[in-house]
Structures are given as structure tokens and as C-alpha cells.
Amino acid sequence: MKKISPEQATEEMNKKAEKLKEKDLEKVLHKQEKIEDKIRSNDSIKAYIHKAKSMFALLKDYWTGEYKEVPWKTIAAVGGALLYVWMPLDLIPDFIPIAGFLDDAGVIAACLTLVNDDLVTYEKWKVLQNKTEEEES
After folding, report:
1. pLDDT tens string for the chain (137 positions)?
2. What is the rounded distance in angstroms from the CA atom of residue 40 to the CA atom of residue 58?
3. In whole angstroms, what is the distance from residue 86 CA to residue 68 CA?
4. HEC-encoded secondary structure of the chain
5. Cα 54 to the chain's mean position, in Å?
């Protein structure tokens, strides 16, 4: 079974991120449910569902202008990684049993390595926003 190396995963994620445009973010956000379903349904990547939800929340808050304290490279990496997961024909096509999803897991893991600090900062901001909204209610 062919396995994707961390270097290959990072390279694939970077390729997607470099090409990502704002219209692609809209596409990712519209495909959120399908991407999350794909993540949930595959043993090799379902451990990333919580982080994927945070990644989508970050993209949504960036898209709506609620959260702009993040570099474009982080948005591009997150959007590129999620687009990669959604694409059925990627480095290892998804129709190949098991191996077809290992590359998706590798790309998500590579993305999280690159954007972890920004994602944690965003998650903390989101918790504070939710507390503030609850206090105002």
C-alpha cells in the first residue's frame, strides 16, 4: 500500500494553498457538510473532525469579517487542505481502499502543523466571543 510522506503531504497542501483564491473559500464553505461527512466516515481522518470544525469556523469568521486577525497564508493553508480532502482525485485517489484517505489525513496533519498557533489563537478568541454574547443575553 502506498503511503504519503509528511513531505509529500506538506507539498500537496502548499500547492493548494498557493492557488487558493477568495472564491475558493466560498466553495469550501458551501461544501462544509460534504467535507465533514467525508472526514467522519473514514477511520484514517475521523480523528480530525474537531479540528476540521474549528478550521471551518475560522474560515467562516474570516469570510464574514468577524475575525481578521489571521494571516492570509493561514486562511489559504486551511482552505487548501479542506479543498484537498473534498477532491476525490488527488495524490492518491479516494477510490483506492484505505490508501486513498491516508493522503487526506497527511494533508490535514501537515496543515495543522503549519497553522496550529493561529488556530489555537482563533479558538481562544471564539470562546471569549461566546462568553461575551452569553453575558450580554
Report:
1. 445 666 776 777 777 777 778 888 888 899 899 888 888 877 767 778 899 999 999 999 999 999 999 999 999 999 988 988 887 555 455 544 555 556 777 888 888 989 999 999 999 999 999 888 777 76
2. 19
3. 25
4. CCCCCHHHHHHHHHHHHHHCCHHHHHHHHHCHHHHHHHHHCCCCCHHHHHHHHHHHHHHHHHHHCCCCCCCHHHHHHHHHHHHHHHCCCCCCCCCCCCHHHHHHHHHHHHHHHHHHHHHHHHHHHHHHHHHHHHHHC
5. 8
So what's the pLDDT on residue 95?
Answer: 46
Q: Do residues 107 and 101 lie in contact, with contact meaning Cβ atoms separated by under 8 Å?
A: no
State the residue for C-alpha cell 504519503.
Answer: 4
- Distance of alpha carbon 98 from alpha carbon 48, whole angstroms: 16
